[in-house]
Fold these 2 entries.
Entry 1:
Amino acid sequence: MNDTLKLLESIEKSSGSDLKKVKNLKEFEKLRTQYLGRKSKLTKILRSIQNLPQKDRPSVGKKSNEVRKALEASFLKTQGELEQIQSLNEASDIDVTIPALKKHIGHIHPNTQMIWRIQDIFQLMGFEVFEPYDIDDDYHTFTSLNLPEGHPARDIWDTFWTEEGFIPITHTSSMQNRVMKMRKPPIRAVVIGHTFRNERTDPRHEHTLFQCEGIYVDKGITLSDMIGTLKIFFSKVFEKDVKVKLDPDYFPFVEPGNGMALSCTLCDQKGCRVCKYTGWLEILGCGMIHPFVLREGGIDPDVYSGFAWGFGVDRLVMLREKIEDIRHFHSGDLRFIRQF
Ligand code: PHE
């Protein structure tokens, strides 16, 4: 009797390993006959139970039925898998293992690509990213930035006004006050969004453009922190070591106020039309945040200091991608967009 039980166990075991080797339904049928067919060892055992001595019948009967059930289940499972593979192969000529064809499914606008790049770089430096309101009030666009009503410096920006007295923002500086009120120092923030100006368009001017604003407020922040931050940023954007230069400039919300220029990325300072043979490209406005602006943002200027900058994203794209006319960006011309 022990021999019969052992035989049953070995049948179960070898059926498992044989099933794993089966590659198609034909081989599978053969194996099923071998294990479960009329002439199989298992069937023979099942038929012989009635001839066994009375005392052995229950244990052999139980075991052989268990093995039969296990075999039937595993054969059924394998049959299902093989049928699925076969129907996939027959259904069509589709080979599901071939990589997908590269289809023409559109292009990401170069401005968007640049915005993503800017966000990545500043986020790695620990800056948080904000979006401005497209339309904002006078306080956030001007007054909180040390530009009270009637201040002549408001003329720096060719501002649009809505009939209700709101402003399609002329610059992303409109968010400085809100960010300062929302966060406590250390504050590291960039604001990227659309800005609007009452400009006559030409190859270098547009009425709608993207700006990137940045502010950094903490104890002991100096101009050299600003220079270092922006130099690293521009070197990452242009993927080469760029030089930066500060010139004096005037914005009422920074003191001192500066313009920053980059070593020309097109001619590497050999002199070209784009840098007007000076070797330098003026790229942004920046400076140390004016104490009035800090105070207005709820920050004590006797304890904290900070720097701010603002630059045009479109201009950066033009320099990086060597685009000669800013009007391409909004042209909707597919020949332009398909290049990116
Ligand atoms: N907001 C300024 C502009 O549009 C740029 C700027 C931002 C200058 C922050 C200094 C500091 O032109």
Note: The mean pLDDT is 93.
Entry 2:
Amino acid sequence: MPYTKRFDGRKFDETRKIEAKVGVIEKADGSAYFAFGDTKAIAAVYGPRTLFPQHLQNPVKGRIRCNYDMMSFSVSERKRPGPGRRGQEISHVTEKALEPAVKLDNFPNCVIEVYILILQANAGTRTAGINAASLALAHAGLPMIDLVSSVSVGKIGGKLCVDLIKEEEDFKEKNGEKSATDIPVAFLPRLGKVSLLQLDGKISSKELSEALEMAQESCNKIYEVQKRTLKEAFKEWK
Ligand code: ADP
């Protein structure tokens, strides 16, 4: 079934309204809020501090330990509280997406804890979480070689779209078969490097290249918002 008009009226290469803020949690070393429309994420960073138990320490470089979770009230059908397999997977890929951006060799034997909480979920929570976490790491004043900017891109009814909503992720063909392809991506925009690429569904290699270009363009826009947010917050600092 062709998808000619997006459910929420956006252009195919348009993200939802982006909101970003840093310094939302006073007690954390760094914190941020990031929203794609009604998908809302908060990230808090603590550390670096010495990693225990000691056998987990790496004398060459520090590590990022990420904890992603969705609040029970973040979706209309209450989500079971506490960790699950999905949360573990997202925490793991988020660590991998953030690690290349931070100069971890400055912190041997240490851990940087990153907590991501999803306040409201309408698809794209891992990408919103990565954007918030990247801002929170920078807000904590950690040495970084780049920020990380993330968005999902997908193929819905034969059409490539950025920043999918849940209705799009659940898009079905006339025969009732689920046909959406969802590709969460993260870039280090200044370096032009990919640090996250997952793919749920089917897509040709030609379309995948086009989708990645669309994602990169959106990530460049997200990067500008992230930089502006940090500059605003540190305006008073000279
Ligand atoms: P992402 O949020 O990164 O797109 P998924 O594709 O796993 O990750 O999830 C898509 C969406 O499905 C979520 O954003 C959320 O809206 C919904 N969802 C995920 N887990 C649950 C859950 N346990 N209960 C209700 N809705 C959920």
Note: DSSP finds four helices and nine strands in the chain.
